[in-house]
Amino acid sequence: MLSKRVVATLKKPNSDVCAECRLQIVDVSKKIEVSVLQILITYSVLLFVICFGFINDANGQINSSAKNNFQTPNIVFIIADDCTFRDIGCYGGQAFTPNIDRLSTEGMKFSNCFQAAPMCSPTRHNIYTGLYPVKSGAYPNHTRAYDHIKSIAHYLKPVGYRVVQTGKKHFNPAKVFPFEHFPKSKNKFPDITAIDNLFEECKSAKTPFCLFACSNSPHSPWTEGDASRYPPDDIKLPPYIVDTPILRKNFSNYLAEVTHFDSEVGSILASLKHHQLEENTLVMVVSEQGNSFPFAKWTCYDSGLQSAMVVRFPGHIEPGVMSDALVEYVDVCPTLVDLANAEEIDGLDGRSFLPVLLGDKINHKDFVFGIMTTRGIINGSEAYAIRSVRDKKYKLIKNLNFETKFTNACSKSVYFKSMVEKANLGDKDAKRLVNAYHYRPKIEFFDIQTDPLELNNLASDPAYQLEINRLSRELENWMSSQGDEGVVTEWKAHERQAPKRKSKKK
């Protein structure tokens, strides 16, 4: 249909009509051309976006088509044992860790990585299952998961991966963790020779692998490494540890084992390079819970729950980046599943932080949680339940059996006894720290940004009551979601330990 403007021009003289009609027709034609061009451009852009998967879903996850831009990646996960993250070189520590330090310049270093339980066994279950400790059943030490639980091996094997674990195990039962193990490897350290053979076999067969290399360093009694690098008189002790000659000697041996762990990391990285597998392998190195000196392992302070995490994936993770995203060990399993382009797993507590690794997101979680169970541990209090919640600024700890004396393997060690001896000789600072380790208030609250070592409890300050209430609600909601009944759950801990530990506490 002709426009009114064109119809009106028909009443004019013929010459004028013809001229103006031609102008109108040209004008309409141009508009049609522009509209068609706009439609084509819009369609092309939309098609490009869909094909290459650059749109994130509502949860910030990366579409599978985006992940398919790289080949099926290999995975190497390396974990220490009882290593306080602050003692690693690239985290400001005094331990000599050149391999981890270099890796941090080649990938992403996390400043807010946490696990949910500051003990070896629940930590390992936490990583492999993607579930928090109470929900998986693995919340005391020397524990086991419920029989119906599945782990990372169940999720990656169906998509073609060899899922291999070497070194320290500390998980049960075997059917929940159907890892491939090196047949002749019996000790608690990663078998470097067998790892090298694995890399060669997988490269030749073009088979992707997911390797968990689990060290026993720097777990006490600290017999590995060269302690001469750390003269006892020269080392720096954290302010929450009583300074004694015996403690300095033990801390020197501990630092030597941190360096030993770093050498294991270096050997595995060198093997990857030798087999030309670096470019298509994601490497993740973590430090586990804190060391076994006071106020670290067996506690819900950051020195117990916080972990180093360094991740390298050439061409996909920007090198030399520091992330302050809150991530947890419970997120490792779904992240590796996401990376492997395996089917998403329903029912996990953890969430993939692959979008953080790939630079598509800068945040991940609002809160991280902690649980400590003394029941059933070596020299542990009969029942001393601790729960915690933390965001990027504040930390809340609830000592549910606060009237009980807090004890564990640390409190029977020779170095702790040297602290007690110094306190008994009249040293006021030693007496204060020994007493603070054994006896805790019901509530502890810290401003992590101004007090990262958690030395100043603000729980009694009215100015922070709203924040304490806010975090208390988050902690209560989390415990409810896990089926965690606090003290009642603590008393049932023996039921969740390996059978040989159910009859007596060790």
Descriptive report:
With 506 residues, this protein is α/β, with parallel strands linked by helices. The strands form two sheets. Strands 1, 2, 3, 4, 5, 6, 7 and 8 form an eight-stranded mixed sheet that branches. Strands 9-10-11-12 form a four-stranded antiparallel sheet, with helices on one face. The radius of gyration is 29 Å and the shape is globular. The N terminus is likely disordered.
What are the main properties of this structure?
disordered N terminus; alpha/beta; eight-stranded mixed β-sheet; four-stranded antiparallel β-sheet; single chain; about 500 residues; 12 strands; 17 helices; Alkaline Phosphatase, subunit A; globular
